[in-house]
Amino acid sequence: MRRLLAVLALMLPAMALAAAPPAPALPDTPAGHFVTVFLNAYNSADPVELERYRKLYNRTAPPQTWIDLHAMSGRMTPARVESRGPNQISVLLSAEIGDGFWQEQVSIDPADPLKVVDASFGPADRPPEFAVPRVPHAELDRMMAQKLAQDVAADRFAGTIMVMRHGKLIYQSASGLSDRATKLPVGMDTRFRIGSANKMFTAIGILQLVEQGRISLDAPAGAYLKDYPNADFAKAVTIRALLSYTGGAGDIFTPEYDAKRREVRTLADYVKLFGNRAPDTSAEGKTAYANYGFVLLGRIIEVVSGEDYYSYVRAHIFAPAQMKDSDSLPEEVAVPNRSRGYTKGKDGKLVDNSDTLPYRGSAAGGGYTTAADLIRFGEALRSGKLLSKAMLTMATSPQRPDGWYGFGFWIGGLGPAHNWGHGGGAPGMNAAFRVYPDLDAVVVALANLDPLAADNEADYYSNRMALGE
Length: 469
What we know:
The protein is of the alpha+beta class.
C-alpha cells in the first residue's frame, strides 16, 4: 500500500453528484484486454481473481494491495478511453466511493499479448466534464455532516478536517475514535501521523539552505555527503533530482528494511542500510517515487546545517509557523493526544498498526501533526515566513516532464481546482494538505485509517467549495 499510494465512503447523495456520461467500452485489443482483466479482478475484490490477473500478466503487486484500495474506492468504471493502437491504452477510471479518478496506462509487447512492456496506475485530476456542483458554504456544511456520519459509521473515516479561506477558518470537524480500545474520541487537538506529507518540511529545509547559498540545486549529493558509500550515486544524483524524484534513489520499504525496522533510528542508519545501492537508471526507476531520496535530503540538512534533522525542522519550520503540536518523536515516547492508527487486516477487520511503524518518523515521512498546525503551516508558507515567494513558486511548479511534482510538493487540479501541497498514506495513516491559490483556500484532512480515508473527505469538500464566496 505504501508504494501504491505514496505517491496513494458510502455512495454520496444523488443530488450532490453530476450526471456522468455512459461508461465507454474497452477495445477488443491486447491493451484493452489487459484493462478488462484488471478491472474484473479489481472490482471483484477476490484474492483468487486478483492472483489470476497477477500471474497472467506477471505483475508484482500482491492481491491484498488492490483489496485494501478497493475497500476505500469501491468499484472502478471507465470514464474515458484513449486507445493508441492495439497495444497501448490510457483509461481514466471513476471510483464508486468518493470523488476520486484514477489513470491506468499500459503498453503491451506487439509480439506477445500477455507481456506488459510498461504499466502505471495512479490518481488523476477530475476532468471538467465530470465536475460536481459547487454549493454555498452553509449547504456544504450540511452535506459534509451527512457524509461524515455515513463514513464514520462505515469505518471509512476517523479524523479531523479544517478549511481556511480568505484568512478565516470556515470549517472544522472532528469525527470518529482516536483510540478504539478506550473509545477515546477524536478531538481537534488530536495528533495524526501524516506519512509522506513530512516531505514538505524536508524540501523546505533544503530550499532554505539554497536561499542562504549553502546548497546548490545542481550540485551532486556527494558534494555534501563526502563519505557516501556508493561513489557513482554520489557523483551522479543532484539535489534537484532528489527533490523531484528524478534521480532513481529508490525506496526504503524493502525486505532489508523490514528485517531491521526497529533498529533504524537515525538518518545515518538509513544511509548505512542503503548507501551501497546504485541509482536506478531505468526509464521507470529514474522517475519513480523515491522515499530514500528524501532521507538523503534530510541527512544533507544535518551535514550542511550542523544540526540534527529533527532539531532543524523544529527551529526553522515549526517554530516560525507556530506549529506547536508537530514533531517526529519516537513511537516509544508517550506523546499526548497522538492517535492510534488502524489498518485493515486480512479478514477485513481493523487492527492496530503498531507492528508496521518505524522507530520514529524520518525525513521521508511518518511524523505527526494536527489539522490546526497544518493550517498554520499553509499560512506561514504563503506569507513568506518559511521561503521567499520566488522559491515557493519554484517549489510548487512542475519540475518533472509529467508535471505532477515540484520540489517536495504535489501539484494537481484543473482550472479553479488547481492546488499544491502533499498527501501521505501508509497502513493506519492518511493525510491531505492542499493549497488552492485561485480559491484562496487551505484544506486539511487527517485520519488514523488507511488511505483514502482523508483524501476522500478533502476531495468531497474541495470539489464542492463555492467559487465566489
